[in-house]
Design a protein that fits this description.
Blueprint lengths: L5 H13 L2 H5 L9 H14 L6 H10 L11 H15 L4 H13 L10 H11 L6 H14 L5 H16 L8 H6 L1 H17 L4
Helix pairs in contact: 1-4, 3-4, 3-7, 4-6, 4-7, 5-6, 9-11
Length: about 200
């Protein structure tokens, strides 16, 4: 990826500060959806090598996509998109840029970008890349997700978590970029299948 321009760097820095993203991503209930996750998504975006015209919007969308995160809520992405809209409007960002960032943030609710949505495919794959992590890193991720849902009884959590994971296994492809399908699809499916088996085998532990 190319180096961001000075203007782009200033805009990104201003957006992060205006959106209060530092304090948001260090909230105590975030065991996984924290600054480490944002850093990882940004690295995976870079690994996927999006076209230069999408780099700024993807960086902004990566930063804002989990700005609001309350486990169990179904409006986190919409609320995160509003945070992005408000922050970017305050700093005078271009309306087209704001609209695209908002769209991408909302897309992370479904991780189902259209076939011609290059930026959406990159962000979706970068956000899901943790599913293809080496087994020990994947297990750390799964444990962190459980921590975020600590108030949910174990049996209920196992059923709900397995159901969510199965929706990804049921897809023709978890990843939408050619790079993601080539490098991440197989290990992700292995990790998901292993976690589902564990959840089903030990629902009360």
């Amino acid at each position: 990826m190319r180096e961001p321009t000075e203007r782009e760097t200033r805009l990104l820095d201003a957006a992060v500060v205006t959106g209060g993203l530092g304090p948001r991503y260090t909230q105590s209930h975030r065991a996984y959806h924290n600054l480490m996750h944002i850093e990882d998504v940004l690295l995976r975006v870079e690994e996927l090598e999006p076209p230069p015209e999408h780099e700024l919007t993807l960086a902004l969308a990566a930063w804002f996509h989990d700005a609001v995160y309350q486990p169990g809520k179904d409006d986190n992405e919409d609320r995160s998109a509003y945070v992005a809209y408000d922050a970017l409007e305050q700093i005078g960002a271009d309306p087209e840029l704001i609209a695209e960032v908002v769209r991408l943030v909302r897309l992370t609710s479904s991780h189902d970008p259209a076939a011609d949505d290059i930026a959406g495919q990159v962000l979706s794959d970068a956000d899901l890349a943790i599913l293809a992590a080496p087994r020990d890193r994947y297990e750390q991720y799964a444990h962190a997700i459980r921590q975020e849902y600590v108030q949910v009884p174990q049996a209920e959590y196992c059923v709900g978590r397995a159901k969510v994971l199965q929706t990804f296994l049921d897809r023709t492809s978890i990843f939408r970029t050619s790079y993601g399908r080539e490098h991440w699809e197989a290990p992700a499916r292995a990790n998901l299948a292993a976690e589902i088996a564990q959840l089903q085998a030990h629902p009360a532990t």
